[in-house]
Each structure stands twice: as structure tokens, then as C-alpha cells.
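It would be a great kindness if you could assist me with a short task in structural biology. The matter concerns a single protein, recorded as an amino acid sequence and a row of C-alpha cells. Kindly check, if you would, that the fold set down in the C-alpha cells agrees with what the sequence suggests. Thank you for your consideration; the sequence and its C-alpha cells are set out here:
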Amino acid sequence: MKLAIVAADFDRAIVDPMIEGAENEARAAGFETITVRVPGAYELPLPVRRLLERKGVAAVVALGYIEKGHTLHGEVMGHVVHDTLMRLSLEYDKPVGLGIIGPGATQTQAAQRKDSYGPAAVKAAVSLLGTMAQLRKKR
């Protein structure tokens, strides 16, 4: 089984450790990984959708960082991306692990979270896969 990771290129100093942690966590859970990069968090949903369409992909993890800005741009973008990822999970009946720091996180906050968000998103997706398997058995 494969677990796909879609990660933003924006602020590689934050996102690269998130990817490494997610890939390590996925391998430890017995998954082969597919990792795809996109320019930023706003671009995450489309490749997430394409990967959810694949039969061999059990779950997808979305990683990124939406920094605190001087306007509401990041907050609006964050809400749109989070909502779209949830809708995709429901549409395809597959987990989408959310590993997006922000919106509204500072560089300091992001640096403090970068090592835990990737693995946590994978753990959540893998846990939900187990829950869904149990629910299918109870039909």
C-alpha cells in the first residue's frame, strides 16, 4: 500500500523536515511513499485529488506552512485549503492527513512545530485507515 505526501515548496527550511518526518513515519508504518512538491499551500488540493483517485494510494498527507501576514490573505487561503482537503477526503472515502502549520503561524512557531507536524499527519491518516477498516467489518 502507498501513502502519498503532497508538500509545498514555500519555505523549504520549514517544510523539508516535515517531509522527512512524514516519510519516515510512513515507512515505519509499512507504507511505500510517493512525494510530490507544489509551489505553496494553495496548490495542495489538486494533486491531492489526483492521488486520491489512484487505487493503490490508501491515504494522502498534505504538508505546508501558511505564515502570519499583514493581511487576511493567509487566513482566507488556509480556510479554503483546509475545507477543500476535507471535502476531498469525504468524496474519495480516503484519509487526508493535515500537516499544515498555520494559517497565522510565525517563523518561530513554525520552527518549533516543523519536526512534529509531518509524522503527526501520517499517524492520523494511518489511524483513520484502521478505523475505516473496522467500520467496514461491522457492516
Remarks:
- The two ends are 23 Å apart (CA to CA).
